Amino acid sequence: MMLAVATIPPYGWSQALADLGQISPIATLTGFFLFAIVADLVIPITRRSGVVAMVAVVGLSYSLGTAVYRWLYATGDYAYQKMATGDNFALFFDILFCSLGILTVAISHSYLVKRGMREGEFHILILASIIGMMVLASATSLVTVFLGLELLSIALYIASGFARDDNRSQEAAAKYLLVGGFASAFVLYGMALVYGASGTTIIPDIAKQLANADLGNPLLILGVVLMGVGFAFKVSAAPFHMWTPDVYQGAPIPVTAFMSVGTKAAAFAMIVRVFAGGLPHLAPEWQALLAFVAATSMVVGNLMAITQTSLKRLLAYSGIAQAGYVLIGVIAGGKAGLAAVLYYLFVYMFMNFGAFAVVTLLAGPEGDRDRLSDLGGLYRRNLPMAVLMTIFMLSLAGFPPSVGFFGKLFLFTAGVSAGYTWLVVLAVLMSVVSVYYYVRVLIPVWTATRAEPLRASFSSTMAIALSGVFSVILGLYPTSLLIAAQLGANPFGP
Predict the structure, then answer these.
(1) Backbone phi, then psi, for 385, in 5-degree steps?
(2) CA 38 to each of CA 55, 60, 120, 156, 430: distance values in angstroms, whole numbers, following the listed order
(3) How many whole angstroms separate alpha carbon 459 and alpha carbon 141?
(4) Residue 184: helix, strand or coil by DSSP?
(5) What CA–CA distance (Å, rounded) separates 406 from 117?
(6) Nearest to 468 by CA among 370, 388, 411
(7) What is the C-alpha to C-alpha distance for residues 14 and 207, in angstroms, rounded to an integer?
(8) CA-angle at 170, arms to 166 and 174, nearest 5°
(9) CA distance 320 to 437
(10) Torsions phi, psi of 48, nearest 5?
C-alpha cells in the first residue's frame, strides 16, 4: 500500500505552549533533572551529600503535583503532531512513577552511604529512567514509544552496574544490556513491519488504517508477534524472563526495588497503548500470544520461586508470576480489564517495593544481605519492620482483605467476563501455590532468635511505613483508587 505523507500544519508559540502543557509533568521533571546534573558538577564534593537527593525529591514532588493538577483538568489533547498526549491514562502512570521515584530516593540515601557509592550519579540515573517511563506512558506514536523505551533502558543498564566493586553487579549490567538490546531490536523490527502495513507511526491512526487493510498480511502478523516478544522481555514475562533473576540479584537493592515496579508498569503502559490502542482489529492474534505468555509466566514464576533461598531471586520470580496476573487484565480489555490493570500496578508499587525496601535495611558495607536467613529474628531486631514485612508478603499472596486480594479479584473478574475462564482458573491455582513461598519468607522473621538491633534511617522508615499504610488503606477502601483507574483506563486518545 502507499505510505501516507503527513501534512504538518503551521506551528507557532501558542501551539508550542499548549503542547508543553499537555506534557507538563515530563517537562517539569526534565528541568529538575538538568538542574541535578549541574548541581552534581559544580557543588564541591565535601558539600554535595544529599543535595542531588533533595533536588530529586523536590523535582519528583513538583512533577507529581503537576500531574495531579493536570488530572483535574485533563483534556486528552494530542501534542507535537500526535506524538504524545496528556490524557488520564498518561497522568495515572505519571503519578505512579513520581511516587515510586520519591520512595526510591528515600530508601537510597543510607544505603549509598553505607556502600560508599556516589549519590549524585545514582539519583540522576533514577530521574532519567523515570522521564523515560513517563514518555512511554504519554506516547501516541511508535517513534515516541521507542525513544521512551531506550531512555528508560539505558539509564537502568548503568544503574544495574552501579556497585562497581561487586562482580555480580557488573555481570547484571552486562546481561541486562545484552538482553535489553536484543528485546529492543525485536520491538523496533516489529514496529517497522507494522508501519509498513499501516503507513503511519501514530498509534490511533494505525487502528484507522488497519480497519480496511488485509489483516491476514503475514508481515503485519509478524510485526505484532515481534513487538509482543519484545514487550514480554521488558515486562519480565516467561518464557522471556531469563535475565530477571540474575539482574535482580546482582543490581544494588534500591535499583532492584525500583526496577521491579517501574519497568513493569512502564512496559504495561506500552503494551496497552500499542496493542489495545493501535491494534484492536488484530485483538485475536495478540490476545492469543499474551494468553500463552500469561499462563507460562504464572506457572514458571510461582514454581521457580518455591526453591529460592535468596529473597531477591524469590521476588524476581514472584514478579514474573505477577506479570502473568496483570496480563489477564490486558487480554480481557475493555474498561473493566484495563482499570484492573491500572489498579493492580498502582498497589503493586507499595507491596512489592515495600518488601524490597525492608531488605535494603539488611545491607552492610560489604554488600547486600538478601538470603531468607538474613531476616532471622526480625521481630526482635525491629518489630515495626517485621509487621510491615508481614503486610507486604500477605498482600502479594492475595490474602483478604489485603490490597493484593482486591487487585487480583478485579483482574480475575475481568478475565472471566471476557471469556478467559481457563486462564483465571490457572491463576487462582497458582495464587494458592504462591502462598507457600510468601509464608516461607515470614517464618524466619517471626521464629529465629537473632537479637542484634536493626536500625533504619528516618527516610527509609518513612518510605517503608508509607508503603505499608497504603497497602492497608487501599485494601480496606479500594473504591477511590478503582474509580481513578477507571478514569485512566482509556489509552485511545481523544
Answers:
(1) -70, -35
(2) 11, 17, 10, 21, 49
(3) 39
(4) helix
(5) 39
(6) 388
(7) 30
(8) 165
(9) 14
(10) -90, -20
Buried b (16+ CB within 10 A) or exposed e, 464-491: bbbbbebbbebbeebeebbebbbbbbbb
Whether 318 contacts 238, CB under 8 Å:
no
379-398 residue pLDDT tens: 888 888 999 999 999 999 98
Cβ distance 305 to 314 under 8 Å? yes
Q: What is the pTM of this model?
A: 0.92
How far is the C-alpha of 432 from the C-alpha of 473, rounded, in Å? 24
The neighbouring-strand residues paired with 310 are: 371
The cell numbers describing 489, all together, are 483506563
CB 349 within 8 A of CB 315: no
Residue 53 has, within 13 A of its CA and on its CB side, a CA count of 18
SS3 401: coil
Peptide bond into 239 cis (omega under 30): yes
- Residue 68's contacts (CB-CB under 8 Å, 6 or more residues apart) are 95
Q: What pLDDT is attached to residue 163?
A: 78
DSSP 8-class letter at 155: H
45-101 per-position pLDDT tens digit: 766 667 888 999 999 999 999 999 988 877 777 777 888 888 899 999 999 999 999
The three cell numbers of residue 379 are 521481630
CA distance 392 to 434: 14
Closest C-alpha among 439, 311, 425 to residue 369 = 311
What residue ranges do the domains of the chain occupy? 20-488
141 SS3 class: strand
Exposure string over 201-238, b if 16+ CB within 10 A, otherwise e: bbbbbbbebbeebeeeeeebbebbbbbbbbbbbbbbbb
Cell numbers linked to 114: 553505607
> What interhelical angle do 403-417 and 334-360 show, nearest 10?
150
Q: What is the DSSP string of 17-32?
A: HHHHHHTHHHHHHHHH
> Is the separation of the CB atoms in 134 and 490 below 8 Å?
no
3-class DSSP assignment, residue 377: coil
Locus of grid cell 490502542 = 277
User: What is the total residue count of the chain?
Assistant: 494
Scan for cell 494458592, then name that residue.
432
Please say whether the beta carbons of 480 and 427 come within 8 A. Answer: no
List, for residues 189-231, the tens digit of each pLDDT value: 999 999 988 888 899 888 888 887 777 788 889 999 999 999 9
**Helix ranges, 199-333 (H):** 203-210, 218-234, 243-250, 253-271, 283-305, 311-332
Give the DSSP H or E segment for 185.
helix 167-198
Going by the DSSP 8-state scheme, the letter that residue 364 receives in this structure is B
Q: 315-343 pLDDT, tens per residue? A: 999 999 999 999 999 999 888 999 999 99
Q: Which of 267, 247, 245, 293 is nearest to 426 (CA)?
A: 293
